[in-house]
């Protein structure tokens, strides 16, 4: 496919149990700005790319819950619901069964609702011309190389981390679907931490784009507090 645009898909990864949040239900269903975090996340893609095909990966026990939520809240989003697997790798593989070759497929964390529509649009545009596009942000903290010895953090002698070459990977990560599907046909490996690591192990090169500092992943109570603060400030003029 060269002359025409590839069809767009997004796999929303929302199969986590959210144990770190300590809430009564998985974090993707907690409320942010009057809506489930998962709905907020999906709306970014629906607004950025009208007509995008949505595949939602959920815990098996919450597929019915999510169907009911969409009905009760009049959240109209045609979507394919897929049960999660035993690891994130297996969950993505389950979803890829529903994606054709010749498409662009984004994989995004269901608990990253603050990604901007602009970044999503820019990435899909750039992904037409590269096989794998990964958003990254430069590391701003001073990094320490430590190990845990009997419950205490201690320095590793002589080990240094060069902050200038360290970047944090985010989602969405966007791929030519045939490349991602071929990569996920490999056996599972514990070194697979995200989709980019799977594609890289398969031998394909990755391209990068600068991500967004505010595109945080909501996994703890502190993250939820931060997300609420960010949303309350958006639209206000808080320039220095």
Structure description:
The mean pLDDT is 93. 29% of the residues lie in helices and 22% in strands. The chain is globular. The protein is an alpha/beta fold and 240 residues long. Strands 1, 4, 5, 6, 7, 10, 11 and 12 form an eight-stranded mixed sheet that branches. It has a two-stranded antiparallel ribbon with strand order 2-3. Strands 8-9 form a two-stranded antiparallel ribbon.
Keywords:
240 residues, alpha/beta, 8-stranded mixed beta sheet, 12 strands, 29% helix, globular
Task: Describe the structure concisely for a colleague.
With 240 residues, this protein is α/β, with parallel strands linked by helices. It contains 7 helices and 12 strands. It is globular, with a radius of gyration of 19 Å.
């Amino acid at each position: 496919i060269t002359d025409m645009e590839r069809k767009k898909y997004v796999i929303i990864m929302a199969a986590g149990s959210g144990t770190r949040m300590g809430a009564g239900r998985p974090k993707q269903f907690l409320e942010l700005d009057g809506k489930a975090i998962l709905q907020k996340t999906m709306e970014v893609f629906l607004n950025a790319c009208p007509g995008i095909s949505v595949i939602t990966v959920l815990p098996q026990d919450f597929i019915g819950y999510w169907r009911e939520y969409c009905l009760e809240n009049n959240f109209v989003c045609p979507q394919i619901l897929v049960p999660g697997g035993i690891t994130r790798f297996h969950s993505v593989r389950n979803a890829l069964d529903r994606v054709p070759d010749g498409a662009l497929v984004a994989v995004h964390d269901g608990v990253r609702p603050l990604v901007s529509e602009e970044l999503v649009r820019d990435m899909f545009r750039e992904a037409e011309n590269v096989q794998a596009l990964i958003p990254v942000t430069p590391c701003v903290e001073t990094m320490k190389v430590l190990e845990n010895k009997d419950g205490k953090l201690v320095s590793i002698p002589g080990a240094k981390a060069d902050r200038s070459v360290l970047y944090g990977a985010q989602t969405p990560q966007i791929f030519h679907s045939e490349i991602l599907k071929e990569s996920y046909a490999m056996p599972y490996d514990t070194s697979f931490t995200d989709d980019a690591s799977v594609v890289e192990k398969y031998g394909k090169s990755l391209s990068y784009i600068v991500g967004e500092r505010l595109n945080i992943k909501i996994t703890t109570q502190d993250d939820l507090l931060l997300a609420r603060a960010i949303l309350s400030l958006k639209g206000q003029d808080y320039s220095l």
